[in-house]
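Assess this one:
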Amino acid sequence: MQDLTAIYRGRIAQHIVTQEIIALHHEPSWAPYFWIREKAGSSAEINLLLVSKSKLYPLEMKSGAVGRMRSLHLFMERTDSSIGFRALQNSYSKEEVTTPSGYDYLLINLPYYAVGYWELYLGKVEH
């Protein structure tokens, strides 16, 4: 299969990325974090929350670079985070993003195989 995101609507890719994040931790009790907002007619979820230096960074897994990213925008606005991650089959890139309500943040796009190095990419953009 050429595109992991085509298998089971991206669930295999999401599983592989989550396993990579779990493998980075050596504590047997460590479990991945995620975020869900349940509101009638308007639920939202972030696939994984990454933690570094007491800060949370959302990681969304998408099957393509195009999309509305409603959940990610909502999370960024509610937490005042300035950096978010998106795992894609594409290559590395970063972009300035503005939510529909006008909140600006940096989106770092990582190919699936590089998600385990997310903190290295974070270090390149944080000052």
Q: What stands out?
A: The beta strands are 33-37, 44-52, 55-61, 83-88, 93-98, 104-111. The chain has one domain: 4-125. Residues 68 and 126 are 25 Å apart (CA to CA).
